[in-house]
From TrEMBL:
Protein name as it appears in the record: Holliday junction branch migration complex subunit RuvA
Family statement drawn from the similarity comment of this UniProt entry: Belongs to the RuvA family.
NCBIfam families xrefs: ruvA
Record's function text: The RuvA-RuvB-RuvC complex processes Holliday junction (HJ) DNA during genetic recombination and DNA repair, while the RuvA-RuvB complex plays an important role in the rescue of blocked DNA replication forks via replication fork reversal (RFR). RuvA specifically binds to HJ cruciform DNA, conferring on it an open structure. The RuvB hexamer acts as an ATP-dependent pump, pulling dsDNA into and through the RuvAB complex. HJ branch migration allows RuvC to scan DNA until it finds its consensus sequence, where it cleaves and resolves the cruciform DNA.
Native organism taxonomy: Bacteria, Pseudomonadati, Pseudomonadota, Alphaproteobacteria, Rhodobacterales
UniProt organism field: Pontivivens insulae
Region feature (Domain III): 154-223
Amino acid sequence: MIGKVSGRLDYRMGDHVLVEAGGVGYLVYCSERTLAALPAEGTQVALYTEMVVREDLMQLYGFLTLAEKEWHRLLTSVQGVGAKAALAILGTLGPEGTSRAIALGDATAVKAAPGIGPKIAARVVNELQDKAPAIMALGASGARRAMATAPASANTSDVSEPVVVDTQEPAASSDGVAQADALSALVNLGYAHGEAAAAVASAEGDDASTLIKAALKALAPKG
């Protein structure tokens, strides 16, 4: 299994790139959003990857963050959603938008992706809604660690590898960090900082995922 490819971006096409690493060229399929975020051809790039193997083909799919990769894996676990359809959802909504739509039960937003009909969109929301908090926590943790490790005077023209979230560590090392990640995830969903902070403060849990799930229940419309 190839979990990550780091090397020179040789070329990009409409739905994939070729990354040369160690003398081998890896053809990696990406969403439109990911392709647009990649650096210029001839520069270094790093992509987390997921390999999809079928009887008639073997393809690599690439992602800039672990949250994007995890959403692709979860989306393809839904009946009727293939690897390309999952890329279409991520390309339309992005990882955070996908989290927002699924966590809030917004099947209409999922349906906006090319090739995704109302039945598939509803199935995606119904099957993955309970799993959204864990991916939201992963994304919030990655963003926090990226900020913590970024150079004080970063040159935006420099190309660096995505920050790796060590999934072997606990989701949060302290209550304060877990609450901060939960709050960040809820604010990204569109909740006001004040109401999100109050929901997190009243929630019970030892990790960000549990806090997010409890806070979402508290914030859900009553009646």
